[in-house]
Amino acid sequence: MLKIIADETKISEKRTELLVIGCFLNEDYSDLLNKFNEEISIAGKEIISHSHKFGLLNELYTFAKLPARKILFAGLGNKNEFNTEKSRIISGKIIQYAKEFQIKELSIITFDFSKDIFESFVEGIILSSYSFEKFKTSKNNNTIDKVSILIEDNSKEYQKKINEISVICQAVNLGREISNLPPNECSPEYLAKIALDLKNQGIKSKIISLGSMKDMGLNGIVSVGGGSINTPKLIVLKYEGSKKEENPILLVGKAVTFDSGGISIKPSDKMEEMKFDKCGGVNVIAIMKSLSALKIKHNVIGIIPTVENMPSNSSYRPSDIIKMYNGKSVEIINTDAEGRLILADALSFGIKQYKPKLIIDMATLTGACIIALGSNMAGIIGNDEKLIQKILDISKVTDEKMWELPLLEDHHEQIKSKNADIKNIGGRAAGAITAAAFLSNFVENTPWVHLDIAGTAWNQEGSLSKSYNPPGATGFGIRTIIKFILNETQ
Known about the structure:
By secondary structure, the chain is of the alpha/beta class. It folds into two domains: about 5-150, Leucine Aminopeptidase, subunit E, domain 1; about 175-490, Zn peptidases (Aminopeptidase, 3-Layer(aba) Sandwich), CATH 3.40.630. About 35% of the residues lie in helices and about 20% in strands. Strands 7, 8, 9, 10, 11, 14, 15, 16 and 18 form a nine-stranded mixed β-sheet that branches. A hairpin with an 8-residue loop joins strand 3 (about 55-60) and strand 4 (about 70-75). It starts with a strand and ends with a helix.
């Protein structure tokens, strides 16, 4: 595992494979370079004069005239325009460079000590170090063992912050690793086994199987999973960080381990990407795993309904009417609108069993959200403006972009059914919003926020290339929600 150290060693004395110096436009680096011998200083000043453009990397071999084997000058652009996202991207580029040249250890001079910039720089280091290689017979020999961040003093405080960010980003990388698993490897049962392993992480784990779900009336989950030989599961994770009588935060995540669309089968083009339909639920598992290490002083419940949506002679069908866990009846118009059915049961189950103070659900719910907002921004909808704003404020720091969509009476009208209380789709118009309108029938008056991460959960057509987001699952939303929980407990 990558180790990141806050190091007070003098720059001129640091023995390292690679010493990284960030270069802002129109900044004077004479004092820094004068710490080296004259030859390196002169060469460094010449390189810096051409290294200001953001993202540009220029190297200088020291030929044993310094303890550092090589210096890398990283362009940071205009200091007034430098922000958390650029900090993440440049640290990702530095890590990509190190991996390309199989550098196992490197040292980076901190170029900005502000809290948000420092945190995002560490995030970029860890997030860009991940790659999915589980099934490759020939592994790349490009892992980095250690990164030293060179600072002048107060290393204990900086190390404390590094350790916190490491836990958060390790949760992201765990979420990516599970989300990237193919459906023949990751079934609902396998996902449940991963959740059970969290018992050793300060989490209480419970798995509700098919028979019990039938007895309890969790018919939305049962119906969606009925077409697959891989039976559905309801994963319940419980973290107790505060007194037991305190109402918990409830996290709910959609985990369809593969979504064929069921009887309303999807087109074959890009159907292989439907292994990512479990990302919302996997995110919740990853978040829950981080809570104990972060010493969160709050009670948090994670509920993950997990199914495989397949066509067969036992699949649920268009025109079926399902009685949901909370008693409402739903007419099925399209079996590919399955995520809202399993989420609905999980939401109402969570409210009845745990009486949460607030609910956040995460789901790759609708292609309509991608049509509306593209592949780089999630939709956020809810019934509590204050809660929505808190999450939006944090997302601006994490650069996990979100846009609030309205939820009006018109949208509720679209999902009214002639044959049941509601139907599971409301037509093409406002598809992401009517999906949220459907979910709102199952949250009662509890403050609730829904994140539609269909466009952002993995790198797909239209996704921006980012140095810290390798191909595959992104873990989008994990950092934002963990930081939200941290802020709620401070």
